[in-house]
C-alpha cells in the first residue's frame, strides 16, 4: 500500500504526499546528492526535484518482506519517462530501488530509501 501510494504521489509531483510516507527520521539516498535525513531535508529534496523534472513511471515490486513486526524491506524497479521541465525534453527512465520500511503507529513508512539508475527495459 505504501509503495503504491509513493509511486502515485511521485508521478503526481505531490511533495507533501511523498514526504508523508516517510518516517519522521526517514533517510533518502539519491545518486549525486547528499544524504537527506528527516522530513524537512527530504521535503526540500522532493521540492527541488519537482521543479527540475516530471516522472511518469510504473513500479514493479520484486520483494516485500516483513522482517519483524516493526521493520521490513522492499526491492522494486521502475521504468517510464522523465521530462526535463526547463526544456520539455522527455527521455526514458529506469531505476532500481531499495526501501527499508518501519511500522509507525500501525502504518508502514519509508525509513530508508535509495535508488540507482538501471538498464532500460527492452
TrEMBL record:
Residues annotated as domain SnoaL-like: 5-88
Source domain of life: Eukaryota
Pfam families: SnoaL_2
Protein name: SnoaL-like domain-containing protein
Amino acid at each position: 500500500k505504501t509503495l503504491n501510494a509513493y509511486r502515485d504521489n511521485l508521478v503526481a509531483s505531490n511533495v507533501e504526499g511523498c514526504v508523508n510516507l516517510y518516517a519522521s527520521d526517514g533517510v533518502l539516498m539519491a545518486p549525486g546528492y547528499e544524504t537527506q535525513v528527516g522530513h524537512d531535508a527530504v521535503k526540500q529534496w522532493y521540492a527541488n526535484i519537482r521543479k527540475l523534472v516530471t516522472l511518469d513511471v510504473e513500479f514493479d515490486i520484486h520483494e516485500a518482506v516483513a522482517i519483524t513486526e516493526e521493520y521490513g524491506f522492499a526491492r522494486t524497479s521502475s521504468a517510464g519517462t522523465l521530462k526535463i521541465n526547463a526544456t520539455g525534453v522527455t527521455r526514458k527512465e529506469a531505476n532500481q530501488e531499495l526501501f527499508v520500511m518501519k511500522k509507525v503507529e500501525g502504518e508502514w513508512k519509508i525509513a530508508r530509501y535509495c535508488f540507482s539508475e538501471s538498464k532500460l527495459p527492452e
